[in-house]
Design brief:
By secondary structure, chain A is of the alpha/beta class. Chain A has helices at about 15-30, 40-45, 55-85, 100-110, 130-140, 165-180, 195-210, 230-240, 255-260, 260-270, and strands at about 5-10, 30-40, 90-95, 115, 145-150, 160, 185-190, 215-220, 245, 275. Chain A is globular and about 70 Å long. In chain B, helix 6 packs across helix 9. Classes of the chains: A alpha/beta, B mainly alpha.
Chain lengths: ~280, ~475
Amino acid sequence: MIKDVLLCLEGSASTEAATRTALQIAKSQNAHLVGLVIVDEPQIRAGAATSIGGASYKQDRDESLLAEARKSAAAWLGVFDSRCREAKIVGETRQIVGRAAANILREMQAFDLSVMGRDANFHFETESTDPATRSYVLHRSQRPTVLVPATGRPVWKRAMIAYDGSSASKRAVTAFADSGLAHGLELHVATVDDDGATAWEMAGRAVEDLKRRSFHAALHNVVSVLPIPEALLEQATKLEADVMVMGAYAGSRIMERVWGSVTTDLIEKTTISLFLQH
Amino acid sequence: MPSAAESALLATPVWAVLPFACYLLLIAVLPLFFGHFWESNRNKLLLGLLLGAPVIVHLLGRADGAALLTTTVFEYVSFIALLGALFVISGGIYVHGSPAGTPVVNTVFLAIGSLLASLIGTTGASALLIRPLLRANQGRKRLTHLVVFFIFIVSNGAGMLTPLGDPPLFLGFLRGVPFTWTLRLAAPWALVNGILLVLFAVFDWFTFRGDAARVAAAGTAAVAVAPVAGSGAVAPLMPALAPPKDKERLRIDGRLNILWLLGIVFTVFAAGTWGPALLPNGHARALAQVICMIALAAASWRTTPRHIHEANRFSWAPIVEVGVVFVGIFITMVPALLFLEERGASLGVTKPWQFFWASGALSSVLDNAPTYLTFASLASGVADHGAGVLTAANLGALAVHPIGQELLAAVACGSVFMGANTYIGNGPNFMVKAIAEQHHVRMPSFFGYTLWSGAILIPLFGLVAHFFF
């Protein structure tokens, strides 16, 4: 069961959706919720090639961006704190000054579940997007993460488990079942494979696994001309699922670079929350 | 002709060039890897003096060493006095208001900058115009191209028509290049800036249309949001993405500074045109020029209301930093220039197009002022052919020499234009980048910027080389 939840705060619309989801999870699980903001001072102050006379402009720029980052961090923590109080949830705020990716990962290891906006930008002062931090933590975290897009619904009624038989997807099923989040949800297991018999058998194993944990799930084998991520998202839409449970980044980094990654594609395209377990 | 003994005495050893090369390399590398160390002006000065010490010892061992050092001191003071005066005076002018950031207005803005830069320097024009231009375009989503083209045009290519336009040209002026000589560079100036303005207008028109369509589709320009307590609603938190404010007409505060600027132009013009007749002693002339610069800067400082300096975020730090860094450059540069002057003909760079590309390549990664002097010295050596007429100390002779003037034009164009190739090629480049980032414009990385310059500027410089060199 989930006892404590980490919510990564910043200013994107997806983090707003993540905040609502985290509040809902904390309330339903009676969990302790921690809102974390990162002021990535090392990134802002990182060395840069400057022209003659440029060092003073860089210092001025660094101070200005840092002041803005601190101001934004204080605002986000303040809003989070008041929303916890309104929702009558035991909330705590935490601010860390340091590298975003490394610090978020370190914090995540101490929590049962982490919730993060899909488009979270922890380097908003210097970058327009920040997929690197998300990728870094999802590739390394040993704990489950809920990734929420801006359109993610906070209250879950149906969950679709995307199962491919990999050890990561097995861990995802186990983590989701053990978290307590699966209680009361309508569960579906979906596999994507052209060979119907193999897919059926694979999905059956996931259903059996869930049954041993006292959960009932329906089986779906998706045969589609679409690429796997689109096929899964289409199936999730058909089922009106609110969350998709899946193993994250099961393949090697090299293969991922060569062939691409289903996880990355799903993250980029999803309109519902993803429960991810590496 | 110097005797063999004199030649042996004057010959500059290779090792004496090393402090200059080391110092330029450190200026490029230290901010990247030891940013905190490089922030301190004391460290910059110590490093310059440390590398300058063996040079001073070497020069004092030469028969003409004391004279060379004295000339260097006067040159340094004149150089910094001009930069400082332009810095103070342009910092006293504030452009109020923000017109609508349409492609036409933006192109006109850059065109004004391309003319202004030759009068008040690329740094002054950049500092004066970048903020109103960013304000005018507040609310537009894609602004990177605007700032990149601003750096290409206003911060670099525009400052070609007078010695005030760019520090390398002023260094040439201090070494005798006539004030009006730079006007002969009007054709390459017009080609580069004209094509860049047209390219910018087309680019900006497409992005403007794209942004307008996107905003219309989204119904709002605000993207970044934060939850509003209690309401369940979301509100914009990041000011850069907030909807644009109402447009205001442009208004200039601190207009008296235009008078002081004209004073600077007149002083430099007079020093170059009538100065030799009025004050034949070069050092006395330099001193008079410095006094005029200081007086004009002081007049600007006294007459400018403090709120204008505050609006411009005026600080002495940049000009102090420039002054400190150039101490090391001016000292270590002396033997390097002598070396190139003595052995220029044997180094294989002899044609104008070679000077254009070689000075440009070096100007891209090092500051363009020392680059200009380095290649102008080399050009002296090449054009002189051992005749002993052309020297690095008197570039005025090079500017009227039949071959030398072609080489000097190539060096001037290469050094000034190609300072735009990277963020470190010219002083204002990084200043504009930093100011843009403070206004929430996402600027490309060092290498991202070089992709822009590689795709746009290098083919353009190919045209310049083809038509003019």
